[in-house]
Specification:
Layout lengths: L5 H4 L11 E6 L13 E5 L9 H13 L4 E5 L5 H10 L5 E6 L5 H11 L4 E5 L2 H5 L1 H5 L5 E4 L1 H8 L5 H17 L6 E2 L7 H14 L3 E4 L2 H11 L3 H12 L6 H21 L3
Parallel strand pairs: 1-2, 1-8, 2-3, 3-4, 4-5, 5-6, 7-8
GO molecular function: lyase activity; magnesium ion binding
Organism: Aeromicrobium camelliae
Cofactor: Mg(2+)
Amino acid sequence: MTALSSSSLAQLDVPTALARSWRLIAADTLTPDTPRIADVLVADLEDGVPAEHKEAARATLTAWLDGGREAWVRINTAGGQEWEKDVAALRDRRGLQGVMLAMAETAEQVEQTIAAFGDVPVVALIESALGVENAGEIARAGVVRIAFGTGDFRRDLGIPGDRTALLYARSRLVVASRAARLPGPIDGPTVGDDPVVVADDTRHALSLGMTARLCTSDQAASVVNTTCAPTPADVAAARAFVASPPEGYAGAIAPRLAQAKDTLRRAEAYGIE
């Protein structure tokens, strides 16, 4: 049994709830040949595009989507002028798979965005102390997942990017997601593309209950995909456990059985045979 290559993974339609890698790419750099390594491609209209280039970026993005391609879009903060322009340009646009709301701080901002886009799924990107404080309300406001914008969060609090400084915020988002019956949150990206560092950061996020990561390069997305996926050996063990659970106290076996079934569900979504 072998896992599929990164190029093959790019062809899979991974459900949003199980998507591991969310690749941010500036909307004004999209081309017909933009690769799809990540589970989710997120065209960025917010931090990735300077203010003076946003109109051109919207034009590039809408033409790109109208050309038969699909992507999520990170839009600007709810209620602002740029947010209104994003909504006007993207609402009912063919190829729009979902929107990631930048700097989500209140449930009202989420509800406003959901109302503006109708049936389009929304991910709330939490990037500030206020957003973390209101994480529970945001998670229950109708989003399909929440994500952690580590860079802006660090700037807001004036703290370093080490794991101890960010531990509380990450754990708070994990608890908020679970309480709202959402998948585990999407962690912020690793600075740089060193595959060893990306893999180590991803394992740390997974250990806390996060289940995906934002990525700023295709190389990082490939590492995240591999690190977040069960290995063929994991799949074989899970399949054997589900087929023949050991006898004993049901209360002790049930958690392991649920974990094994989850491993098989993810393996199927990620194309691991």
